[in-house]
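Sample pair:
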Amino acid sequence: MTTDSSIGVFDSGIGGLTVVKELFSLLPNERIVYFGDTARLPYGTKSVETIRRFAREDTELLLKHYPKIIVVACNTVSAVALDVVKTLADGIPVIGMIEPACKAALRVSTSGRIGIIGTEATIASKAYEIELQNEAERSGKKIETFAKACPLFVPLAEEGWEEKVVAELIAREYLDSLHEAHIDTLILGCTHYPVLAKVIQSVMDANVRLVNSGAVAAQEIKMLEANSSKEKPDHLFLVSDIPRKFQSIGERFLGYELPKTRQVVYEDAWVV
């Protein structure tokens, strides 16, 4: 590890940029190396075996850049393959999306009725429910959890349709059962979902607290890592494919111009 070590972040594609946006805000002088596996997305519909293989390969790529922290900005990998990343990291701190979000949800929930939305793989894994129950037992709290897969939220976010009528119609279809369950806290268990926070909040009661898994993970990273002295860090953005809309979607997610992006290809290992 060098004194200029970066914070390494990977995701199945573009959604992890919502986490990077939080890191840019909280740690503006830290260098970020980001990898989006855009050639193989989405991870949320893949088998557990495939997700674990992708997690291993993605981690191997970040390790080539000597990260001091690895951020798994993919809820699906966080749910079913965080152990793979931690094993390969070999002592480098690894931050996933699930544990920080569960701790935050328990802090803000007053009724203990907590909802979770995410990809099919994340919801099927029950990783959030398990972590919430474990945290609740440690703190002596009683909770009930209610989960719902919301796969169409990802394309809505990437199309920039979060303010269109179709977004509200789909959100109501997905969220009505959670609304009827009278939850007071909802975990956004996918890094795309903060883009849809406004419509999600409008469909739920106004007093339902939304927990942005990427934002609370970024807060945890800030506690781990003091801001470096670099005034203008040279960020590196890597993708496994460059779809036509990557630049425009990425800049919309980040809120400003996307840094230069390089493409890598997986053969026997990653090559530029």
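The first helix runs from residue 17 to 26.
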